[in-house]
Every structure is written in structure tokens, then in C-alpha cells.
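BUG: 3D viewer hangs when loading the predicted structure for this chain

Environment: internal workstation, default settings.
Expected: structure renders.
Actual: progress bar stalls at 90%.

Input used:
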Amino acid sequence: VELSSYYYLFGNGLIGIWLLMLNRVAARQAALPFNLTRWGSTTGAFMMVGLLSLYGILLGLDGSDYSPLLMVSGISYLGIAILYPIWCLWLGRWILSRRSENVIAAPEAK
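C-alpha cells produced before the viewer hung:
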């Protein structure tokens, strides 16, 4: 386990905080569909598990030792590698569908 793994997972945790807050605000203002904000909040929560790796960073854990902390923090990798791309694609699809609705609904200029 290298120290860089802890930094990587900690960075995922910080992105998870941003994602969770973004989806909470979007849900409160009804700016995004409910299922999309729920998925984003769940993804953010998975990613925030990476914040546990701060312990490994502060202790300077490095080497080939087995680390249960890294295994637990690895759950955040599930968020960043699988759940976050799904959320991004879903958000992009929603944005494009809203854009095409506006193009169809816009009156023609004469």
C-alpha cells in the first residue's frame, strides 16, 4: 500500500462532499429530477468514505503492509469508478433532453 493511494482516496472524499452538497441543494430547489439527486447523494456518500484515509496520510503509512483502512476506504473507489460516471451520464442525458424540449417548444421567428 503506497501513501499515494491514501491521497487519491482522500481526494475522492472531497469530491464526494461537493457532489452530496450539490445534489442536496438541487433536490431542495427541485432543479433536478428526484431520482437523479438521490443517486447523486448516494454516490457522494460512497465517495466520502475516502475521507477515512486521512488517518493513513497523517500517520504516513507506506509500504507493503496490509491495511484494513485502505480496504474500507476503497469503497470510495466504487463511487468514483462506477457510480459517479453513471450519475454524470444521467445528468448529461437529462440536460440534453431539456435542451431538445426547449428547441421543439420554441416558436419560430418570422
